[in-house]
Amino acid sequence: MTALTLSTAAAPGLRADAIVIGVAKGAGGPSVAPGAEAVDKAYDGRLAGVLETLGASGAEGEVTKLPAPAGFKAPVVVAVGLGAEPEKEAGFDPESLRRAAGAAARALAGAKKAAFALPLAEAADAGVVAEGVLLGAYSFDAYKESAKDAKGARAKGNGNGKAPLAEAVLLGGKPRDKVYKAAVERAAAVAEELNRARDLVNTPPNDLNPEAFAAVAQAAAKEHGIKVQVLDEKALVKGGYGGILGVGAGSASGPRLVKLSYTSPKAKKSLAFVGKGITYDSGGISLKPAGHNETMKCDMAGAAAVFAAVVAAARLGLEVNVTGWLALAENMPSGSATRPGDVLRMYSGKTVEVLNTDAEGRLVLADALWAASQEKPDAIIDVATLTGAMMLALGSRTYGIMANDDAFRSAVHEAAEESGEPAWPMPLPEHLRKGMDSPTADIANMGERMGGGLVAGLFLREFVGEGITWAHLDIAGPAFNEGGPFGYTPKGGTGTAVRTLVRVAELAAAGELG
Questions:
Q1: What backbone torsions phi and psi does residue 131 show, to the nearest 5 degrees?
Q2: Containing H/E element for 452?
Q3: Catalytic residue among 186, 198, 315, 362
Q4: Is 266 a catalytic residue?
Q5: Residue 288 appears among annotated catalytic residues
Q6: CA–CA distance, 241 with 454 (Å, rounded to integer)
Q7: What is the pLDDT of residues 193-204, one digit of tens each?
Q8: pTM for this one?
Q9: In a 10 Å sphere around its CB, with 0-12 CB exposed, 13-18 middle and 19+ buried, how is residue 418 labelled?
Q10: What is the pLDDT of residue 87?
Q11: First vs last Cα of the chain: how many Å apart?
C-alpha cells in the first residue's frame, strides 16, 4: 500500500515526482485552493490563469498536469479539481478532498513519490486526504502477466502496467501532533482493510469459494487477535442451518458460516454485522440469463465488507464488541440443487417456500441473522448485494437502508454520509408482507415484484430476534463499479459499506449511536 507521511516542508524544496495542488471552481474561473500558496507564488500569482488557459475549470475530479516552475525540485505540478468554491469561512467538504486526493493518486500511477499540497485546515482533513490517496491508488492486477516485475514476481499495478504511487507526503500536516498522526493512522487502517475487501470482491470465483474465503478470514483473525469459528457442512447440518445449506446444495464447494468476534475489555455496547457471501451466483435452477451473470463474483461483497469492518475495528482498538457473521455459499444448478417449490427449514425453525432460487441471498442471511440474534447484541446490521430492484430505485452509486427502528435507520444514514458513502433511507411498507404468504410454508422467499428491494427487507426482518434493533443495507448498486474509475473509486470491487460499519462502531464505542 502507498506509504504516507506528514510534513511541514515547503513545496519548492521537496524532492518528489510531483506536487499535487487543489483547484476550486469559482464564479470567474478556476481558483487555487489553500495549501498551494507557495506554488502559486512561484508562478507569480498567475497559476489560476495558466490553468484556465490549459482548459482547467476546477470541476470535481478534473486533473491537469503542467511543468513545475523554476527552482522546484519536483518536475511536475498536478492540479486536481475540488468542485465548487466554498463560501467564505467555510472549508472544503471532506468528500471533495477525499475524491480529489484519490483522482490525483490514480493519475500518478508509476510515480515513486508525490507531495499533496491540498487544503488541510485541521487534522480531520489530513485523515480524509490520506484515505483518498490510499483508496485512489488501489489496483487489482494479481492475474495480469503485465504486473510481474523484472524478476517474475507478482506485483500490483494499476491495470496498465504501472505500479501504484509508492509514497505520498501530506504537506501542511503536523508530524509531531498526536491528533494529526491519529487521523492518518485511522485512515491507513480503514483503507487497508477496505482494499482487502476490494481484493476479495475482485478475486475470480474459481479461486474464492466459501472454503477459501473462510481461510482468508481465519488468517486475518489470527493476525489481529480476533476469535474465529467456522461452521462447515457437517456443523451446519447438525445445527439446522437450512437456508445456507439449501443455497449451497447445488455446488461442489460446500457452504460455510464464519463467526468473527472482536471484544474490547472496555466495551459497553455490542454490535453484530452480518454479510451475504455468495461467492458466485448463477441463480441456481432459476438460472440467470447471459448478460446478468458475468459479474456475479461480486455477490459476496456484503460479507467482504463485514469482514473488513471487524478487522478494522480490531486494528483501531475500538471500545465496542463487534461480531461479524459471514454467510458463505455458492449458488449453482445441479441435480442436488434446491428447486423452485422446495421448502427449507431455517435455523430459526421457520419454513420457507423457495419460489425463486435466484432470491438466495435472503436465505443465507436469514440463518445468519437468527444466529446473531441469539447473542442479543445492542444492534444488528446486515449488508448484502441483495436486489436489482434497489439498483433500479437508487442507481449504481447509492445504497438503500431499511430498519425496524426509524431513529437507528437515521443514525446509520448519518454515519454513511459522514463516511462519504452515498446512501438513502427506504421504508418497509407493511402491506407488502402479505405477498410472501405461502400456502405450504411459513413464508415464501418472493413477494410482489414492484418494490422488490423492500420485500426483501421485510423477509429479513422475519429472522431478527424480538426486541433487537436492526438495519439492512442493500449495496447491490455501488458494490461493483462496472464503469470507469472516478475519484477514489476503481473499476470493479469498491469496498462499499466498510466505512459506514466502522463509523457505526466508532459511534457505538463513544456512546453516540442513536
A1: -60, -45
A2: helix 452-461
A3: 362
A4: no
A5: yes
A6: 24
A7: 999 999 999 999
A8: 0.96
A9: middle
A10: 84
A11: 35
